[in-house]
Design goal:
heterodimer; A: mainly alpha; 8 helices; elongated; B: mainly alpha; globular
Chain lengths: ~250, ~220
Protein backbone atom coordinates (compact mmCIF):
# COMPACT_ATOMS: atom_id res chain seq x y z
CA UNK A 1 0.00 0.00 0.00
CA UNK A 2 1.32 3.42 -0.86
CA UNK A 3 0.77 6.50 1.22
CA UNK A 4 0.06 9.90 -0.21
CA UNK A 5 3.17 12.00 -0.32
CA UNK A 6 2.76 15.37 1.34
CA UNK A 7 4.22 18.41 -0.46
CA UNK A 8 6.59 19.03 2.44
CA UNK A 9 8.22 15.62 1.76
CA UNK A 10 9.36 16.82 -1.62
CA UNK A 11 10.50 20.25 -0.49
CA UNK A 12 14.13 20.96 -1.16
CA UNK A 13 14.28 23.93 1.15
CA UNK A 14 17.68 25.15 2.07
CA UNK A 15 18.79 28.10 4.09
CA UNK A 16 21.25 29.62 1.60
CA UNK A 17 18.75 31.80 -0.28
CA UNK A 18 17.78 33.43 3.03
CA UNK A 19 21.44 33.97 3.94
CA UNK A 20 22.18 35.36 0.47
CA UNK A 21 19.24 37.78 0.67
CA UNK A 22 20.26 39.01 4.13
CA UNK A 23 23.92 39.45 3.22
CA UNK A 24 23.07 41.20 -0.06
CA UNK A 25 20.63 43.53 1.73
CA UNK A 26 23.24 44.36 4.35
CA UNK A 27 25.96 45.07 1.78
CA UNK A 28 23.57 47.38 -0.15
CA UNK A 29 22.75 49.24 3.05
CA UNK A 30 26.39 49.62 4.11
CA UNK A 31 27.49 50.69 0.59
CA UNK A 32 24.68 53.28 0.46
CA UNK A 33 25.92 54.91 3.65
CA UNK A 34 29.63 54.65 2.86
CA UNK A 35 29.17 56.37 -0.52
CA UNK A 36 29.68 60.15 -0.53
CA UNK A 37 26.58 62.35 -0.33
CA UNK A 38 25.51 64.29 -3.40
CA UNK A 39 26.53 67.97 -3.57
CA UNK A 40 22.97 69.16 -4.22
CA UNK A 41 20.66 66.52 -2.80
CA UNK A 42 22.97 65.62 0.11
CA UNK A 43 21.84 62.61 2.20
CA UNK A 44 18.63 62.17 0.22
CA UNK A 45 20.67 60.97 -2.75
CA UNK A 46 21.31 57.65 -0.94
CA UNK A 47 17.78 56.60 -1.91
CA UNK A 48 19.23 56.22 -5.41
CA UNK A 49 21.11 53.06 -4.36
CA UNK A 50 17.84 51.26 -3.66
CA UNK A 51 15.47 52.99 -6.09
CA UNK A 52 17.54 52.45 -9.25
CA UNK A 53 18.53 48.78 -8.61
CA UNK A 54 14.91 47.98 -7.72
CA UNK A 55 13.74 49.53 -11.00
CA UNK A 56 16.40 47.75 -13.07
CA UNK A 57 15.72 44.40 -11.46
CA UNK A 58 12.01 44.93 -12.09
CA UNK A 59 12.85 45.26 -15.80
CA UNK A 60 14.99 42.11 -15.59
CA UNK A 61 12.21 40.23 -13.79
CA UNK A 62 9.59 41.09 -16.40
CA UNK A 63 12.08 40.34 -19.19
CA UNK A 64 12.64 36.89 -17.66
CA UNK A 65 8.86 36.45 -17.41
CA UNK A 66 8.57 37.16 -21.13
CA UNK A 67 11.42 34.79 -22.06
CA UNK A 68 10.19 31.98 -19.81
CA UNK A 69 6.61 32.48 -21.12
CA UNK A 70 7.84 32.19 -24.72
CA UNK A 71 9.84 29.08 -23.79
CA UNK A 72 6.77 27.55 -22.14
CA UNK A 73 4.71 28.12 -25.29
CA UNK A 74 7.46 26.46 -27.30
CA UNK A 75 8.52 23.57 -25.01
CA UNK A 76 5.29 23.04 -22.96
CA UNK A 77 7.42 22.37 -19.88
CA UNK A 78 5.81 23.56 -16.63
CA UNK A 79 9.23 24.53 -15.27
CA UNK A 80 9.19 27.57 -17.59
CA UNK A 81 5.74 28.51 -16.31
CA UNK A 82 7.02 28.38 -12.72
CA UNK A 83 9.99 30.57 -13.64
CA UNK A 84 7.76 33.07 -15.49
CA UNK A 85 5.29 33.35 -12.60
CA UNK A 86 7.99 33.57 -9.92
CA UNK A 87 9.85 36.25 -11.85
CA UNK A 88 6.62 38.25 -12.28
CA UNK A 89 6.06 38.08 -8.51
CA UNK A 90 9.56 39.41 -7.83
CA UNK A 91 9.05 42.05 -10.55
CA UNK A 92 5.82 43.26 -8.95
CA UNK A 93 7.60 43.45 -5.58
CA UNK A 94 10.50 45.46 -7.07
CA UNK A 95 8.14 47.72 -9.03
CA UNK A 96 6.12 48.41 -5.88
CA UNK A 97 9.37 49.15 -4.05
CA UNK A 98 10.50 51.49 -6.86
CA UNK A 99 7.20 53.39 -6.71
CA UNK A 100 7.11 53.75 -2.92
CA UNK A 101 10.77 54.79 -2.63
CA UNK A 102 10.34 57.15 -5.58
CA UNK A 103 7.33 58.72 -3.89
CA UNK A 104 9.31 59.29 -0.68
CA UNK A 105 12.08 60.94 -2.73
CA UNK A 106 9.49 62.94 -4.68
CA UNK A 107 7.87 64.32 -1.52
CA UNK A 108 11.25 65.58 -0.28
CA UNK A 109 12.41 66.95 -3.64
CA UNK A 110 9.33 68.02 -5.56
CA UNK A 111 7.12 68.65 -2.53
CA UNK A 112 4.44 66.17 -3.64
CA UNK A 113 4.05 62.41 -3.24
CA UNK A 114 2.92 62.00 -6.83
CA UNK A 115 3.31 63.98 -10.03
CA UNK A 116 1.84 63.12 -13.43
CA UNK A 117 5.20 62.47 -14.99
CA UNK A 118 5.23 59.94 -17.85
CA UNK A 119 7.81 57.68 -16.14
CA UNK A 120 5.85 57.53 -12.87
CA UNK A 121 2.49 57.00 -14.53
CA UNK A 122 3.72 54.30 -16.90
CA UNK A 123 5.56 52.52 -14.05
CA UNK A 124 2.31 52.46 -12.06
CA UNK A 125 0.50 51.11 -15.13
CA UNK A 126 3.17 48.41 -15.58
CA UNK A 127 2.63 47.46 -11.93
CA UNK A 128 -1.09 46.95 -12.56
CA UNK A 129 -0.51 45.01 -15.80
CA UNK A 130 1.58 42.45 -13.93
CA UNK A 131 -0.85 42.41 -11.01
CA UNK A 132 -3.40 41.41 -13.66
CA UNK A 133 -0.99 38.68 -14.80
CA UNK A 134 -0.77 37.34 -11.22
CA UNK A 135 -4.57 37.62 -10.82
CA UNK A 136 -5.04 35.67 -14.06
CA UNK A 137 -3.05 32.79 -12.58
CA UNK A 138 -5.57 32.51 -9.75
CA UNK A 139 -8.57 32.02 -12.02
CA UNK A 140 -8.11 28.32 -12.70
CA UNK A 141 -6.61 25.20 -11.10
CA UNK A 142 -6.03 23.55 -14.47
CA UNK A 143 -2.22 23.76 -14.58
CA UNK A 144 -1.89 23.51 -18.37
CA UNK A 145 -4.61 26.09 -19.05
CA UNK A 146 -3.19 28.43 -16.43
CA UNK A 147 0.32 28.13 -17.84
CA UNK A 148 -0.75 28.71 -21.44
CA UNK A 149 -3.01 31.68 -20.75
CA UNK A 150 -0.51 33.43 -18.51
CA UNK A 151 2.32 32.70 -20.96
CA UNK A 152 0.44 34.55 -23.70
CA UNK A 153 -0.16 37.52 -21.39
CA UNK A 154 3.46 37.31 -20.18
CA UNK A 155 4.69 37.74 -23.75
CA UNK A 156 2.24 40.55 -24.62
CA UNK A 157 2.79 42.51 -21.40
CA UNK A 158 6.48 43.02 -22.10
CA UNK A 159 5.58 45.94 -24.40
CA UNK A 160 5.39 47.97 -21.16
CA UNK A 161 9.17 47.78 -20.61
CA UNK A 162 10.39 49.96 -23.50
CA UNK A 163 7.48 52.35 -22.87
CA UNK A 164 8.56 52.83 -19.26
CA UNK A 165 12.29 53.02 -19.96
CA UNK A 166 12.11 55.46 -22.88
CA UNK A 167 9.24 57.54 -21.43
CA UNK A 168 11.77 60.04 -20.01
CA UNK A 169 13.22 60.49 -23.50
CA UNK A 170 9.92 60.60 -25.41
CA UNK A 171 8.00 62.92 -23.06
CA UNK A 172 9.23 65.94 -21.15
CA UNK A 173 8.66 65.47 -17.42
CA UNK A 174 10.11 65.91 -13.97
CA UNK A 175 11.85 62.53 -13.84
CA UNK A 176 15.49 62.73 -14.85
CA UNK A 177 16.73 61.11 -18.06
CA UNK A 178 18.87 57.91 -17.79
CA UNK A 179 22.23 58.45 -16.07
CA UNK A 180 23.89 55.13 -16.89
CA UNK A 181 21.78 53.21 -19.42
CA UNK A 182 22.36 55.59 -22.33
CA UNK A 183 24.70 55.75 -25.32
CA UNK A 184 26.47 58.94 -24.18
CA UNK A 185 29.12 59.04 -21.42
CA UNK A 186 28.13 58.52 -17.78
CA UNK A 187 27.52 61.80 -15.93
CA UNK A 188 28.02 60.52 -12.35
CA UNK A 189 31.11 60.56 -10.13
CA UNK A 190 33.06 57.28 -9.96
CA UNK A 191 32.41 56.47 -6.25
CA UNK A 192 28.69 56.89 -6.84
CA UNK A 193 28.73 54.76 -9.99
CA UNK A 194 30.67 52.05 -8.13
CA UNK A 195 28.22 52.08 -5.21
CA UNK A 196 25.32 51.91 -7.63
CA UNK A 197 26.89 48.94 -9.43
CA UNK A 198 27.48 47.17 -6.10
CA UNK A 199 23.84 47.78 -5.18
CA UNK A 200 22.70 46.43 -8.56
CA UNK A 201 24.87 43.32 -8.06
CA UNK A 202 23.42 42.79 -4.58
CA UNK A 203 19.86 43.24 -5.84
CA UNK A 204 20.66 40.66 -8.52
CA UNK A 205 21.76 38.24 -5.79
CA UNK A 206 18.48 38.93 -3.97
CA UNK A 207 16.58 38.33 -7.20
CA UNK A 208 18.25 34.95 -7.76
CA UNK A 209 17.71 33.92 -4.12
CA UNK A 210 14.04 34.88 -4.26
CA UNK A 211 13.63 33.07 -7.56
CA UNK A 212 15.07 29.86 -6.08
CA UNK A 213 12.59 29.95 -3.21
CA UNK A 214 9.61 31.01 -5.32
CA UNK A 215 10.18 28.40 -8.05
CA UNK A 216 10.42 25.79 -5.30
CA UNK A 217 7.21 27.13 -3.78
CA UNK A 218 5.47 27.09 -7.17
CA UNK A 219 6.36 23.39 -7.55
CA UNK A 220 4.88 22.63 -4.12
CA UNK A 221 1.75 24.64 -4.99
CA UNK A 222 1.30 22.54 -8.15
CA UNK A 223 1.62 19.37 -6.08
CA UNK A 224 -1.07 20.61 -3.68
CA UNK A 225 -3.38 21.38 -6.60
CA UNK A 226 -2.79 17.93 -8.09
CA UNK A 227 -3.39 16.28 -4.70
CA UNK A 228 -6.65 18.20 -4.31
CA UNK A 229 -7.72 17.10 -7.77
CA UNK A 230 -6.84 13.44 -7.16
CA UNK A 231 -8.50 13.34 -3.73
CA UNK A 232 -12.09 12.53 -4.66
CA UNK A 233 -13.21 12.14 -1.04
CA UNK A 234 -15.34 9.37 0.42
CA UNK A 235 -17.87 7.69 -1.83
CA UNK A 236 -21.50 8.50 -0.97
CA UNK A 237 -22.80 5.86 1.42
CA UNK A 238 -19.31 4.81 2.58
CA UNK A 239 -20.32 5.49 6.19
CA UNK A 240 -22.93 2.70 6.02
CA UNK A 241 -21.40 -0.65 7.01
CA UNK A 242 -22.77 -4.08 6.25
CA UNK A 243 -24.82 -5.65 9.12
CA UNK A 244 -22.96 -8.33 11.09
CA UNK A 245 -23.77 -10.69 13.96
CA UNK A 246 -22.12 -10.52 17.41
CA UNK A 247 -21.65 -6.81 17.79
CA UNK A 248 -20.04 -5.15 20.82
CA UNK A 249 -23.37 -4.25 22.43
CA UNK B 1 -17.46 21.20 -47.22
CA UNK B 2 -15.89 23.48 -44.60
CA UNK B 3 -16.62 27.17 -45.22
CA UNK B 4 -13.66 29.48 -45.80
CA UNK B 5 -12.01 31.71 -43.20
CA UNK B 6 -14.02 34.84 -44.03
CA UNK B 7 -17.32 32.93 -44.12
CA UNK B 8 -16.54 31.43 -40.72
CA UNK B 9 -15.55 34.81 -39.27
CA UNK B 10 -18.74 36.37 -40.62
CA UNK B 11 -20.78 33.56 -39.08
CA UNK B 12 -19.21 34.32 -35.67
CA UNK B 13 -19.86 38.04 -36.13
CA UNK B 14 -23.47 37.32 -37.03
CA UNK B 15 -23.83 35.04 -33.97
CA UNK B 16 -22.52 37.73 -31.61
CA UNK B 17 -24.64 40.49 -33.14
CA UNK B 18 -27.71 38.25 -33.04
CA UNK B 19 -27.01 37.52 -29.39
CA UNK B 20 -26.74 41.27 -28.77
CA UNK B 21 -30.03 41.89 -30.61
CA UNK B 22 -31.76 39.36 -28.37
CA UNK B 23 -30.19 40.42 -25.07
CA UNK B 24 -29.71 44.15 -25.80
CA UNK B 25 -26.86 44.18 -23.26
CA UNK B 26 -24.81 46.87 -25.02
CA UNK B 27 -27.67 49.04 -26.22
CA UNK B 28 -29.81 48.88 -23.10
CA UNK B 29 -27.20 48.48 -20.33
CA UNK B 30 -23.62 49.45 -21.27
CA UNK B 31 -24.55 52.47 -23.39
CA UNK B 32 -26.88 54.05 -20.79
CA UNK B 33 -24.25 53.25 -18.13
CA UNK B 34 -21.65 55.21 -20.12
CA UNK B 35 -24.11 58.07 -20.62
CA UNK B 36 -24.78 58.21 -16.86
CA UNK B 37 -21.00 58.40 -16.27
CA UNK B 38 -20.81 61.42 -18.62
CA UNK B 39 -23.61 63.03 -16.61
CA UNK B 40 -21.99 62.30 -13.24
CA UNK B 41 -18.55 63.73 -14.06
CA UNK B 42 -19.67 67.41 -14.25
CA UNK B 43 -21.51 67.02 -10.95
CA UNK B 44 -18.20 65.95 -9.37
CA UNK B 45 -15.78 68.39 -11.03
CA UNK B 46 -17.99 71.46 -11.52
CA UNK B 47 -20.53 72.47 -14.09
CA UNK B 48 -19.01 75.65 -15.52
CA UNK B 49 -18.87 75.48 -19.31
CA UNK B 50 -15.17 76.49 -19.81
CA UNK B 51 -14.00 73.67 -17.49
CA UNK B 52 -16.27 71.13 -19.16
CA UNK B 53 -15.15 72.27 -22.63
CA UNK B 54 -11.52 71.76 -21.55
CA UNK B 55 -11.96 68.28 -20.05
CA UNK B 56 -14.77 67.01 -22.30
CA UNK B 57 -12.71 65.11 -24.88
CA UNK B 58 -10.55 63.47 -22.19
CA UNK B 59 -13.60 62.38 -20.21
CA UNK B 60 -15.19 60.96 -23.36
CA UNK B 61 -12.12 58.78 -24.01
CA UNK B 62 -11.87 57.63 -20.41
CA UNK B 63 -15.53 56.57 -20.47
CA UNK B 64 -15.01 54.80 -23.83
CA UNK B 65 -11.95 52.92 -22.54
CA UNK B 66 -13.43 51.88 -19.19
CA UNK B 67 -17.00 51.14 -20.29
CA UNK B 68 -16.07 49.87 -23.74
CA UNK B 69 -14.25 47.00 -22.03
CA UNK B 70 -17.62 45.80 -20.79
CA UNK B 71 -18.52 45.03 -24.40
CA UNK B 72 -15.70 42.45 -24.53
CA UNK B 73 -16.58 41.10 -21.09
CA UNK B 74 -20.15 40.54 -22.27
CA UNK B 75 -18.87 37.80 -24.55
CA UNK B 76 -16.93 36.14 -21.73
CA UNK B 77 -19.97 35.75 -19.51
CA UNK B 78 -22.12 34.48 -22.39
CA UNK B 79 -19.71 31.79 -23.57
CA UNK B 80 -19.99 28.67 -21.43
CA UNK B 81 -17.44 25.85 -21.56
CA UNK B 82 -20.03 23.65 -23.30
CA UNK B 83 -20.60 26.27 -26.00
CA UNK B 84 -16.88 26.68 -26.56
CA UNK B 85 -16.40 22.90 -26.76
CA UNK B 86 -19.24 22.66 -29.25
CA UNK B 87 -17.66 25.33 -31.46
CA UNK B 88 -14.29 23.57 -31.25
CA UNK B 89 -15.90 20.25 -32.28
CA UNK B 90 -17.34 21.83 -35.42
CA UNK B 91 -13.76 22.24 -36.64
CA UNK B 92 -14.12 26.00 -36.97
CA UNK B 93 -10.86 27.93 -37.23
CA UNK B 94 -10.12 29.54 -33.81
CA UNK B 95 -8.59 32.53 -35.62
CA UNK B 96 -11.88 33.01 -37.49
CA UNK B 97 -13.71 32.86 -34.17
CA UNK B 98 -11.37 35.56 -32.80
CA UNK B 99 -11.78 37.76 -35.86
CA UNK B 100 -15.56 37.31 -35.91
CA UNK B 101 -15.92 38.22 -32.25
CA UNK B 102 -13.56 41.18 -32.66
CA UNK B 103 -15.55 42.50 -35.63
CA UNK B 104 -18.82 42.22 -33.67
CA UNK B 105 -17.22 44.02 -30.71
CA UNK B 106 -15.84 46.63 -33.12
CA UNK B 107 -19.29 47.35 -34.57
CA UNK B 108 -20.82 47.67 -31.12
CA UNK B 109 -17.95 49.89 -29.98
CA UNK B 110 -18.36 52.23 -32.96
CA UNK B 111 -22.04 52.57 -32.04
CA UNK B 112 -21.04 53.17 -28.42
CA UNK B 113 -18.51 55.86 -29.43
CA UNK B 114 -20.90 57.64 -31.79
CA UNK B 115 -23.76 57.86 -29.27
CA UNK B 116 -21.50 58.93 -26.41
CA UNK B 117 -19.62 61.30 -28.75
CA UNK B 118 -22.82 63.14 -29.64
CA UNK B 119 -23.73 63.26 -25.96
CA UNK B 120 -20.28 64.67 -25.09
CA UNK B 121 -20.64 67.43 -27.69
CA UNK B 122 -24.06 68.32 -26.30
CA UNK B 123 -23.18 68.13 -22.59
CA UNK B 124 -19.59 69.42 -22.60
CA UNK B 125 -19.74 71.83 -25.56
CA UNK B 126 -16.44 70.49 -26.93
CA UNK B 127 -14.56 72.03 -29.84
CA UNK B 128 -14.88 69.97 -33.04
CA UNK B 129 -11.91 71.43 -34.91
CA UNK B 130 -10.68 69.20 -37.74
CA UNK B 131 -13.86 67.13 -37.55
CA UNK B 132 -13.08 65.35 -40.84
CA UNK B 133 -10.44 63.29 -39.00
CA UNK B 134 -12.76 62.32 -36.15
CA UNK B 135 -14.47 59.33 -37.89
CA UNK B 136 -11.06 57.82 -38.70
CA UNK B 137 -9.86 58.23 -35.08
CA UNK B 138 -13.09 56.73 -33.72
CA UNK B 139 -12.83 53.73 -36.07
CA UNK B 140 -9.16 53.05 -35.24
CA UNK B 141 -9.68 53.32 -31.48
CA UNK B 142 -12.75 51.07 -31.69
CA UNK B 143 -10.72 48.54 -33.69
CA UNK B 144 -7.83 48.63 -31.19
CA UNK B 145 -10.07 48.37 -28.14
CA UNK B 146 -12.20 45.59 -29.61
CA UNK B 147 -9.10 43.55 -30.53
CA UNK B 148 -7.55 44.10 -27.10
CA UNK B 149 -10.79 43.26 -25.31
CA UNK B 150 -11.43 40.15 -27.42
CA UNK B 151 -7.86 38.98 -26.87
CA UNK B 152 -8.08 39.54 -23.10
CA UNK B 153 -11.48 37.80 -22.99
CA UNK B 154 -9.88 34.85 -24.80
CA UNK B 155 -6.96 34.74 -22.36
CA UNK B 156 -9.15 34.93 -19.26
CA UNK B 157 -11.77 32.71 -20.87
CA UNK B 158 -14.10 31.00 -18.43
CA UNK B 159 -11.90 31.06 -15.34
CA UNK B 160 -12.95 32.30 -11.91
CA UNK B 161 -13.64 36.08 -11.70
CA UNK B 162 -13.28 36.29 -15.49
CA UNK B 163 -15.71 39.20 -15.87
CA UNK B 164 -13.82 41.28 -13.30
CA UNK B 165 -10.37 40.32 -14.54
CA UNK B 166 -10.79 41.38 -18.19
CA UNK B 167 -11.11 45.10 -17.28
CA UNK B 168 -8.06 44.81 -15.02
CA UNK B 169 -6.02 43.45 -17.93
CA UNK B 170 -7.48 45.69 -20.66
CA UNK B 171 -7.56 49.05 -18.83
CA UNK B 172 -3.80 49.37 -18.18
CA UNK B 173 -2.91 47.90 -21.58
CA UNK B 174 -5.19 50.36 -23.39
CA UNK B 175 -2.99 53.29 -22.33
CA UNK B 176 -1.24 53.60 -25.75
CA UNK B 177 -4.71 53.78 -27.34
CA UNK B 178 -5.83 56.42 -24.84
CA UNK B 179 -2.68 58.50 -25.41
CA UNK B 180 -3.01 58.31 -29.21
CA UNK B 181 -6.74 59.14 -29.10
CA UNK B 182 -6.44 62.13 -26.75
CA UNK B 183 -3.30 63.47 -28.44
CA UNK B 184 -4.99 63.25 -31.86
CA UNK B 185 -7.84 65.44 -30.63
CA UNK B 186 -5.37 67.81 -28.95
CA UNK B 187 -3.46 68.03 -32.24
CA UNK B 188 -6.67 68.82 -34.12
CA UNK B 189 -7.55 71.52 -31.60
CA UNK B 190 -4.13 73.14 -31.99
CA UNK B 191 -4.19 72.73 -35.78
CA UNK B 192 -1.11 70.46 -35.78
CA UNK B 193 -0.44 67.33 -37.83
CA UNK B 194 -1.81 64.18 -36.21
CA UNK B 195 -0.31 61.70 -38.66
CA UNK B 196 2.11 60.30 -36.03
CA UNK B 197 -0.78 59.46 -33.72
CA UNK B 198 -2.84 57.96 -36.56
CA UNK B 199 0.18 55.84 -37.50
CA UNK B 200 0.53 54.73 -33.87
CA UNK B 201 -3.13 53.66 -33.83
CA UNK B 202 -2.69 51.71 -37.08
CA UNK B 203 0.40 49.93 -35.68
CA UNK B 204 -1.47 49.03 -32.46
CA UNK B 205 -4.38 47.61 -34.48
CA UNK B 206 -2.03 45.57 -36.69
CA UNK B 207 0.00 44.21 -33.74
CA UNK B 208 -3.13 43.22 -31.80
CA UNK B 209 -4.67 41.70 -34.91
CA UNK B 210 -1.62 39.50 -35.50
CA UNK B 211 -1.33 38.61 -31.78
CA UNK B 212 -5.00 37.61 -31.70
CA UNK B 213 -4.72 35.35 -34.74
CA UNK B 214 -1.49 33.72 -33.52
CA UNK B 215 -2.80 33.03 -30.01
CA UNK B 216 -6.30 31.89 -31.01
CA UNK B 217 -5.45 28.18 -31.37
CA UNK B 218 -3.31 27.82 -28.19
CA UNK B 219 -6.09 29.57 -26.27
CA UNK B 220 -8.78 27.29 -27.70
CA UNK B 221 -6.72 24.24 -26.67
CA UNK B 222 -6.74 25.41 -23.02
CA UNK B 223 -10.51 25.02 -23.00
Amino acid sequence: MTTAQSPSDTAQSSIWPWIAMSVAGLITLVASFVAPADAVQEELSRILYVHVPAAWLAYVSFGVTMLASALYLWKKNLLWDRIAASSAEVGVLFTGMTLVIGMIWGKSTWGVWWTWDARLTLTAIMFFVYLGYLALRRTTDDLEARARRSAILGVLAVIQLPLVHFSVVWWRGLHQTPSLLKPASVDMDTPMVLTLLIAVAMFSVMYVAMMVKLVELAKLEEEVILMDQSDLGPVAGAAVVAPSLGGDS
Amino acid sequence: MTPGFIAQALAFTRRDLLRERRSGEVVWVTLPFGAVALLLIPIAIGTDTPTLRRVGVGMFWVVVMLFGVLIAVRRTSADSVAQRDMVALTGADPAASFKGAAVANFMLLVLFEVVLGVLTVVLYDVDLAGWLWIPLILVLVAAGLSLLGTLAAGIVSTGRSAAALVPLIVAPMSVPLLIAATQSFEGLRLGESILTWILMLIVIVLVLSIAGVLTARPLQETG
